[in-house]
Design brief:
Helix content is 62%, strand content 11%. The chain has 164 residues and is mostly helical. It has two domains: 41-125, Winged helix-like DNA-binding domain superfamily/Winged helix DNA-binding domain (Arc Repressor Mutant, subunit A), CATH 1.10.10; 126-164. It has a three-stranded antiparallel beta sheet with strand order 1-3-2.
């Protein structure tokens, strides 16, 4: 049976000193986030997971707009960005229905490629997907310009988004 997964790819240049510094910085950041997460109550952890889950479809569309990629790569990126808030890798049962929904609505397009004996499905954004992201950005710009959005106030306060 074909599957959408591919083995993880290590894009870092392990032989370079800069690669070591970047890895040290990542490890330090992960430890700081883990410490913060460990200090949260069970309910606070639930709130954080709910917030991340709510932005999942748009985040996946945005990730695909940056680079053509396969489902396992997307799961890995999401996991790296949410660790330690989410200690488990996002499951295929959560990610692939989103990918299939985005594809069904013509926001992304999947194409199968052979990698050795395996077939891997790569996803890329469609013009309709680019238009959808563009509209999302326009809505955000409108809210920022009019300073009338509760969401804008929320993000400015919670994520320290600065006005230009």
């Amino acid at each position: 049976m074909d599957d959408d997964k591919a083995p993880p790819v290590n894009n870092s240049d392990e032989s370079s000193p800069k690669g070591d510094l970047d890895e040290d910085k990542k490890i330090k950041c992960m430890k700081e986030r883990q410490k913060l997460f460990n200090s949260m109550s069970k309910y606070e952890k639930k709130l954080i997971k709910g917030l991340m889950r709510g932005f999942g479809n748009t985040m996946i569309l945005w990730l695909i707009s940056k680079k053509r990629q396969h489902g396992y790569e997307i799961m890995t990126k999401l996991h790296e960005s949410t660790a330690p808030y989410n200690t488990k890798m996002p499951s295929a049962s959560k990610i692939y229905p989103v990918l299939h929904d985005l594809e069904k609505n013509n926001l992304i397009k999947g194409s199968w490629e052979h990698h050795g004996k395996r077939k891997v499905k790569y996803y890329e954004i469609t013009p309709e997907g680019e238009e959808a992201l563009s509209r999302f950005k326009e809505i955000a710009k409108f809210a920022k310009k009019n300073k009338s959005s509760l969401w804008l106030e929320f993000f400015r306060d919670m994520i320290a988004i600065e006005d230009d």
